[in-house]
Amino acid sequence: MRYLIQFQINIFALAVLGVLLLFMHSMHIRTFSGVLIRRVSLAAAVAIIDEPLTWIFDRAQFPGAYFLEYGTNVLLFLIGPVIGGLLMSYVDYRLFHDTRRIRKLWYYQGASLLTALLLLINIGYPVYFSVNRQTNGYGSGPWKMLHYVILASLYAYMLFLILRHRKRTSPKEIALYSIFLFFPIIGMVTQLIDSRVHFSWTSIVLAVLVMYVFLETVPSHVDYLTSLYNRRSFDSHLKYLVQDGKPFGLLVFDLNSFKQINDRFGHKIGDEVLVGFASALRQTFSRDGIAARLGGDEFAAFIHTTDQDERVAKLQRLLATSKHKHIRNLNFSYGFVAYENGMTDETLYTIADSNMYACKRMMKQQMQR
How many domains does the chain have? Predict the structure, then answer.
């Protein structure tokens, strides 16, 4: 009972991991990042089970108790850098999307190999810890702090990699990486201050939850490719604004000649164009508007001001300064409508869509002259 109370946070964390692993196992679609999260989860589960055992076997007197106490402590020292390397691999993959790069870097397990070497040395020269053969009591070694330095260096490099390649990801992802980096560091510091506070592995579970919930599961209201709001969100928000009755404007966009780009250069380039346009749209309307992808090459945005012409001009400037040739040369048609009392959501969208097609016809006529 004493150990149940002492390690109740470990039991709770293990239960959370169990539910998460069952949920991930039920998913039929497999991804490399998902595989990495499962490996982190399994390693954390091993650590959560192993940590109480090191305390249970400490000073226990029965045949084999010494080897159990020594072995569980070896595993506990080794599992930390293993988890750190897997977390590092996850961040690297999210930044570069290159499995060969991860494998070439041995899943960032260099710290694990160094720790394994030090644990081999520890057998003859107790640098990390010792176990008294008579009392079976655990004792810290003179180099124990080195273990925490190695772990801290992993997380420090992770932060460096994120900041160095921050342009490869979104500000939201950078914030999430910072949060899940924060949990293991706090857990490690807490354990350093008081070894009886068993928060280090629970903090890993919190990090795994942050990764899976916010990075691996695509929200139902967001378009997967562009990360803009999707058609369902657009319809719901449009209905809400109409019911609210306050002034707003709706812009509908369509990319000109997008089909030709797709047919000539392939879907990869086509996707890059969609993502690039979505990024420019987000920057244009992020201050006080909302942007959505309606499907294909059709987009929309809500505004609560009357500066739609300035917004469109800003969008054109952002596209013109892109480093991507096809985005830089991209042009679009758009239609605008301002909400008036008595309009329905269907009426608003129909008018904006009709205005967009009128703009498209006018642009075609100008090109034919």
Answer: 2
130, two tokens: 């010792």
Among residues 155, 186, 216, which one ends one of the domains? 216
Boundaries of domain holding 275: 231-368
Amino acid at 174: I
Q: What is the maximal distance between C-alpha atoms in the chain? A: 98
In this prediction the pTM is: 0.71
Task: Express each pLDDT in 275-311 by its tens digit.
Answer: 999 999 999 987 778 899 999 999 999 998 888 889 9
What CATH number is attached to the domain comprising 262? 3.30.70.270
* Residue that has been written with the tokens 């702090």 in this structure: 145
Spatial distance between the Cα atoms of 116 and 110, rounded to a whole number of angstroms: 10
Neighbouring C-beta atoms of residue 6, cutoff 10 Å: 14
CATH code: domain of residue 176:
1.20.1070.10
* Amino acid letter, 188: M
CA atoms lying within 13 Å on the CB side of residue 100: 0
Q: Quote the pLDDT of residue 65.
A: 94
The whole-angstrom separation of Cα 251 and Cα 256 is: 16
